Amino acid sequence: MMMLLAMAAASANPQCHGMPIAGMVQDYAGLIRKQDSPGIAHLFGKDGIIDNPGANPIRGEAAILAMLSSFKGAVVKTEDLTIADVNADSKDWRVTGRFHQAGLTPAGKDYDVGGSFDSTWTCSAEGWRIRRMATGK
Fold first, then answer.
1. What CATH number did the domain enclosing 64 receive?
2. Is the pLDDT confidence value at 121 over 60?
3. Fewer CB within 10 Å: C terminus or N terminus of the chain?
């Protein structure tokens, strides 16, 4: 029984080249806080997708970088990602949870948003990469 619990706990935080997925999700949140658009886009690689309600999916590093660059002048004050669940999904890992972000729009107005996130991560030769990131209410 203890072996099964240990295995379940280990699978809840898989590692890629020594980096636990929970740590990588927090690194992703840090990139958002720092507004490191190239770093964020790089995590998606050539095939990763940002898929948000009411918008067309954005695919690939170049398109994601262009979309993030459109927020020039915005200021991210806080970005928090809280993981609710991590599950194996074929050879990938599905990570779901809640997000909260606050800051200033390019026009200088305060914003405060939050909701759910549903993401798929894969372990590549370069480390963790995001296959899909979607947000909702």
1. 3.10.450.50
2. yes
3. N
